[in-house]
Amino acid sequence: MGLLDSIKGIFTSKTLEEKIAKWAEDGNSSKLEALTDEENEQSVRLLAINALSKIARDELAVNTCMKLITDDDKAIKIAACNSLKKIGTKREVDRLYFVETNEEDEEVKKALIEAAISSKERTPRFL
Q1: Which of 85, 87, 23 is nearest to 59 (CA)?
Q2: CA distance 42 to 93
């Protein structure tokens, strides 16, 4: 890399979407988990939740999504369920069904059941 490339690198920073994609690729669930906090915009939270689904065998990713299934935001709940469908393990099934029994929104209820069914079909990755 030449001097000109070094100077360009100083002035061009990665977008948040690029950072999130890189953290997912690197398996950095702690940085992604921090972006799921309610203080962040919904769009950022949704990107982070989706990125968590790409990290296999990560307990923090699963725990973060499990926490978010009871969020106040419907879109966040559904995104967390969709991520759990990809990374979930049998360990979460009972909690998913329990939350579903107390959920009032039909679309969220459906997402919770789909996540539970998907998790039930998996072999546990960790206990």
Answers
A1: 87
A2: 26
d(CA 28, CA 4): 31
34-75 pLDDT, tens digit per residue, is 999 999 999 999 999 999 999 977 899 999 999 999 999 999
| List of E strands, 1-127 | none
For 40, the 3-state DSSP assignment is coil
| Between 6 and 24, the higher pLDDT residue | 24
Cα 39 from Cα 120, distance rounded (Å): 33
Name the token pair of 27. Answer: 């398996």
